[in-house]
Write a structure and sequence with these properties.
By secondary structure, the protein is an alpha+beta fold. The chain contains 4 helices and 13 strands. InterPro entries: Class_V-like_SAM-MTase (IPR053105), SET_dom (IPR001214), SET_dom_sf (IPR046341). It comes from Caenorhabditis briggsae.
């Protein structure tokens, strides 16, 4: 049994678009008994998490009372799988600001991956059809966990990585939050909500970091946490 080379997570790379992983299961030759599964640590819930709110401008956030080392998969971003047409602006879905997009139509890495599998021609065609015209989201509004309360930061201390288990369909995607830097006790857990949210929310970010908004093509300073 072989595996890929380790991914070295850094806070300067956007790993979501560059990498994806696989987790062994009972369908593998190891029957899910090997250690080749990035889901093992999140499932063990090793890090105590507390919910907090620092001021009335910001919603609830989450933090840990212990050190989370860089490169550690901490938890899954759990939610209901929602398939929406590409033009989300014309839908009646009210939870778009809370959901996280896990697929996108021009996902060349995923398309190449499907081509390289040993799946049957019919199944490959089915997978390509599933991803061809629909973007899929994880909506944590009703079915979720504490990951949905991770705050936004333009210099986030966690990144999200797609992990497939058992198959490559949208139903088999796990969205895992991985620390990209050492997160010290009491530090808010943050992720980057992405450019789509930046466009919708415009100047409402409150993370206190400097970043470049692609839709404005300018550098701005976010307001500070106060």
């Amino acid at each position: 049994m072989t595996s890929f080379e380790p991914i070295h997570f850094t806070s300067t790379d956007i790993h979501f678009y560059q990498h994806m992983g696989f987790a062994c299961s009972e369908l593998c030759g190891c029957e899910g008994k090997c250690t080749n599964s990035v889901l093992m640590i999140p499932n063990k819930r090793l890090f105590p998490i507390e919910m907090f709110r620092s001021n009335e401008k910001l919603g609830f956030g989450v933090r840990s009372s212990v050190l989370i080392p860089a490169g550690t998969p901490v938890t899954e971003f759990v939610g209901e799988i929602i398939g929406e047409q590409i033009d989300i602006e014309n839908t009646n879905w009210n939870n778009i600001e809370y959901a996280y997009q896990v697929t996108y139509v021009k996902d060349d890495v995923l398309k190449q991956l499907v081509d390289q599998t040993n799946f049957s021609k019919n199944y490959k065609g089915l997978l390509k059809d599933l991803y061809a015209n629909i973007s899929y989201y994880l909506d944590p509004t009703v079915c979720g966990n504490y990951a949905r309360m991770a705050s936004h930061s333009c210099a986030a201390n966690m990144d999200l990585v797609r992990i497939f288990q058992k198959s490559l369909s949208p139903a088999h995607i796990h969205l895992v939050m991985v620390a990209v830097t050492d997160i010290f006790p009491g530090t808010p857990i943050t992720i980057d909500y992405g450019n789509d949210n930046a466009t919708r929310l415009k100047n409402k970010f409150e993370c206190g970091t400097q970043h470049i908004l692609n839709f404005q093509d300018t550098t701005k300073n976010c307001p500070t946490w106060n």
